[in-house]
Amino acid sequence: MPELTLVKAVNRALDEALSLDDAVVLLGQDIGQDEGVFRVTEGLLKKYGPNRVIDTPLAEAAIIGGAVGMAAYGLKPVPEMQFSGFFYQAYHQVENHVSRMRNRTRGRIGMNMVIRMPYGGGIRAVEHHSESREAIYAHTPGLTMVIPSGPRNARALLLTSILKYPDPVIFFEPKLIYRAFKENVPDEPEFLPIGKAQVVREGTQLTLISYGATMRPTLEAARDLAEDDGVSVEVIDLLSVAPLDTETITASVRKTGRAVVIHEGHRRCGIGSEVVARIVENALDCLEAPIKRVTGYDIIFPYFSREAPYLINAERVKHAAKEVLEY
Amino acid sequence: MPRKTLTIKSKVESLSILDEKGNLDADLDPKLSTQKSLELYRLMLLARRLDERCINLQRQGRIGTYGPCRGQEAAHCASGILMTPEDWVVYAFREPGTAIFRGWPIEHSMYFWGGFEEGCRPPEGVNDLPMCVPIASQVPHGMGLAWAMKLRGDPHCVLTYLGDGATSEGDFHEAMNFAGVYKLPCIFLVQNNHWAISIPVANQTASQTIAHKAVAYGFNGIQVDGNDPLAVYVATKEAADKARKGGGPTLIEAVTYRMSVHTTADDPTKYRSDDEVKAWEKRDPIVRFAKYLKKRRILSEDLEQKIENEIQTEVRAAVERYETYCKSVDPSIVFDYMYADPAPEIVRQREEYRACLVREGVLKT
Q1: CB pairs < 8 Å spanning A and B
Q2: Domain annotation covers residue A191
Q3: A136, A229, A264, B198: which has the highest count of C-beta atoms within 10 A?
Q4: What pLDDT does residue A1 have?
């Protein structure tokens, strides 16, 4: 069982998908010869050739629109957007076609497509390279919005999305943690159900809910709260923000009575808004305190010289947790 | 470092075979068989009668806003009939004749313009994408289908329809560019009907032709008289043969005219003159083709009437099927095809909606 970083785990899932199903095609800018600007596609052009790993001209709408045609023909395209900040140039294709084709054609033509892209801040990148806009895609009917938080679940979720999920998936890769840590990834292909959250730490007094890159400060806060303050903290990793696993969230909050939602994306109409709404709908009678949101603010993401203090850290999560615990 | 004029390899041609006065360039005449000629004539006339019927249905409130194809029957039917079942067709929204040729039921137009998702469901075995309203957004799909064919090594081609307005959109240029780079088996057929709602083609582009936009992407373009079914047929046939043999894409500009409104919600008297419309009426593709077929003794007055009667009967039956179906539709089926395997939240919302409809008396159970 090799230890892999997240970037290597994604590479491995792509390699396995290409090897297991000859309908799988990767396409995007600089993914072939250059092996991706983050080296996610390292070695894949050499192994599978230019008909499976395709360097495209620089045009997001044609990459996604072309993938629509490929998927209609029965291929399983896996287009890469180099950064989520450039996905807007293809957004009309996603809104008007990718998300709607199954419904429009009354089930005749599905879009077995996984659109991968790195998202989020923290790598000191230039403007337009740091946003977290998962809420846009979570809000778009017909899409499924998946965000892994570590190497093992990234590999399993990506493999599942490509090989076992017949509808379009927007797959956000937390680039801050592409190389931050390693995990054991099983030798055999591993799959995870799409739309299911995971309870990654069990507890009885407080529920912390997060996903993606902010799972790290969330787990660090949970550990500190337990070790320093003796609080029993449960932590949920959503993994999929659309659909959202209401059952897992509700069951946890009904048990703990207290919740904090953590994400880097903006607060207004963010994923946290939906999580809070579902808790209120399903577990209001169990709440011991108002729910807190530790999120990005409703402002443009700071340019990189000001991003370090803006990023969510464990201290902020603990501060919110204590407010909720002491209410 | 001299300054010199470059020789560009791409070729741009112009083609007209049968003009509006009935003059025929016999050398260029594809001499379609009697059967093929009548099939094409019948298809064009069916598109015309269906179009007229749909406008009436809209006026009577039996369908919603309708976008007619009057005047463009040659441009779409004479290209569409060249597509084999293995080829794919990607529509804009003024090509009902091609769709019927491909196997869509006549009433699919009524479903679509009548506000039912069923109008976008390609019948089993029909390799088409549904009509596409967001202008030019279908063009990359045609390119992508052709890309998939090429990756799979399948010797087929894709016919993608668009209008003159679509050539201003980025999607058109991006798709043309990819098609050129990968030498894809694509035919991009622009129905230049001169008007994008109120914007004349001169206001859409400063290019001398739309056809030569292909030059920038490294392949050939051809401008044809879009009201001449023979020219449209020949240009499409050449493009299809080339594409299927691995020769890459072609841009066809079919110069035609939107003889009717943009849609039934539009009043063209605000922006164009009656004289212009009348001038184009003299170039009517169906009248022109009928004259030619009569000269070739393929079409007689008796046969013309027989075809007319058959078409009227078919369109009437299609309207009946449409209206019978409308009455039986459960409004909650809008949930049914969102996902192959819907998540619990969608299932619950569907139940919530059904309960709501039962409460409000729309559904019994």
Answers
A1: 136
A2: no
A3: A264
A4: 78
